[in-house]
Amino acid sequence: MSSVSDAAKNAPPAGGAPKPGPAVVKVMPQAQQAGLRRRHGRLLLSFAVLVILPLLVTVSYLWIVAEDQYASTTGFTVRREEGGGATDFLGNLGQFTGGSGASDADILYEFIQSQGLVEAIDDQLNLRAIYSVNWEGDPLFSLWPDAPIEDLLWYWQRMVRISYDQGTGLIELRVLAFDPQTAQIIAEAIVAESQKMINALNEAAREDLMRNAVVELDEAVARLRTAREALTQFRTVTQIVDPNADLQGQVGVINNLQQKLAEALIEYDERLQANATDPRLEQLQRTVDIIRARIDQERESIAQQEVASVGKDYPTLLSEYEGLVVDREYAETAYRASLTALDAARAKIARQSRYLAAYVEPTLPQSAEYPKRFVLSSLTALFLVMAWSICALIYYSLRDRR
């Protein structure tokens, strides 16, 4: 019955189109649960091999094998003697003209990292024995016993950390060793050798200063001797001790004539005003003319008079004489300045112009700060993950291109 009724319901009406039925919906099959594939397993395996395993090895070495290292800290700088004298002020002008060269702190900074310092301290303390004591147990942070000087210098730069501020000239050292006392001893040895180097700079500066002062004094003495000999030669040839003294007599005659001329002119004016027809006016006029002529003759004699021994006139000889006198005075002044400079150099040599000022004495460490296990472990993990990520990205980018 139900089937018949259902068929009747679904049957199309008589004489018309069939009645539309409900829409048919296509159902997709249910998605399967996601799971690990073979490529995911290879990725995890590479992460374990390239990251986890090296990190475990590094952490194990740092925490189990690596020996503790102690750091002794010291700080110092190079100080110069401060002076307020005029010679010190003039000497410091060289700093403003660019002639001072590298500073002492720069020299000391390079000296601490030099092979010469390493050899000197190695001769005193046997650095190879100190830093190779843990070679069998901790080869990564130790020095091999038979290391040549080049390798010792490389290892020295690892164990001696230098911090240098060029603005202030302060140098700070952090010396590492496998026990506290050794670290302090090495730091003290570095300070002692640095002081020796500063003393050597002082000695070289003293020698240069004294040598230059003596050379300048010798040159000043030679210049003064030459100037005096030239003046003596002039006097010998001309047979005139001082041309100025010889000319003073002739100049005195001219002065007397000028005085008499002035008196005669005054007398002439008085008589002319008193009596214009006075017969003595003519005689006074002749006297004035005679005096004026004599003055002209004396002046011409001074200008044209020649010294028979040299055949030169007095103005030329006077010019030569004054030039020789100026040369002698300049030589005497330079000689006195050289003597003063020599005395100043001797006084400066008597005291130390440079010295090493330690603002932090070498400390005795109480706890091991190195190696930085947490820092090294974190950095190792970071770089391993970064390297693994880059390699994975490169691999899949190349794989997708196929």
UniProtKB/TrEMBL annotation:
Residues 254-301 form a coiled coil. The keyword Membrane applies. It comes from the Bacteria. The keyword Transmembrane helix applies. Keywords: Coiled coil, Membrane, Plasmid, Sugar transport, Transmembrane, Transmembrane helix, Transport. The chain crosses the membrane at residues 43-64, 374-398. Residues 1-23 are annotated as: Disordered. Residues 7-23 have a biased composition (Low complexity). This is Sugar transporter. It comes from Ponticoccus alexandrii.
